[in-house]
Amino acid sequence: MTAILVMEDDAATAAEIALELGRLGFVVEIAADGAEALARARAGTWQAFVVDRMLPGMDGLSIIRTLRAEGIDTPALVLSALDAVAERIIGLRAGGDDYLVKPFALGELTARLEVLIRRPRDVEQTHLRLGPVELDLVGRVARRAGRDLELLHREFQILEYLLRRAGQVVTRQMLLEDVFGYRFELKTNLLDVHIGRLRRKLDSAGETAMLTTIRGTGFQLDAPTA
């Protein structure tokens, strides 16, 4: 079972989070103040923390900083009503792995937690393969059917991200947040430029296209069907 510690002083919010996570099979414990939250985080074995930024006694970011200084790197999702970009940056620089602004949809919270929990297992893989495409994460080599793909650093990161989620629709926001590190709305064609370059290198003339644009949503990488 996956155990999650929810550090939240608002009883109604904590109960809603615990109910939703419990429904999905997570084991959830709640700490309502900073001192209790820090003590339980140190004492238990947790797969993730949900941390309210404004906890009584000791604020959420101070808890995260303390845990990181002690070598506890459990993924932490920060919750806050402060939605300014500068505040999000502060939360991430304090050691938070993700930042969710209140009010939020419970579905988004659970989805973000699932991504954070999966992340360490993703890192353990050193080779990824989908059909004719192979990615060597140690040697930083990408190939399709034995053909080397001369990818720039960001193109390699995008391909790795898509390979880990093969057959799934990956939204533009997911790529901007998880690959580019932008945790706020960004009005730019930067992603489209990189996707365009990657597609030209991955799907060359005569080869079945693997990278598809899902209009209005994002992108999907699939193995060739022929």
Describe this structure in words.
The chain is of the alpha/beta class and 226 residues long. The protein is 41% helix and 22% strand. The strands form three sheets. It has a five-stranded parallel sheet, with helices on both faces. It has a four-stranded antiparallel sheet with strand order 6-7-8-9, with helices on one face. A three-stranded antiparallel sheet has the order 10-12-11.
Head-to-tail CA distance between termini: 40 Å
Task: Flag low-confidence runs.
Answer: none
CATH-derived topology of the largest domain:
Rossmann fold
Q: State which percent range the strand residues make up.
A: 15-25%
Order of helices and strands: EHEHEHEHEHEEEEHEHHEE
Radius of gyration (Å) = 20 Å
Helix share bin: 40-55%
Judging from the principal axes of the Cα atoms, what is the shape?
elongated
Structural class: alpha/beta
Quickly count the domains: 2
Mean pLDDT: 87
**Which architecture of the largest domain does the CATH hierarchy give at level 2?**
3-Layer(aba) Sandwich
Q: State the CATH superfamily name of the largest domain.
A: Response regulator
Question: Which strand order spans the largest sheet, edge to edge or round the barrel?
Answer: 2-1-3-4-5
- Main beta sheet, described? 5 strands, parallel
- CATH class label of the largest domain: Alpha Beta
Output the number of helix runs: 8
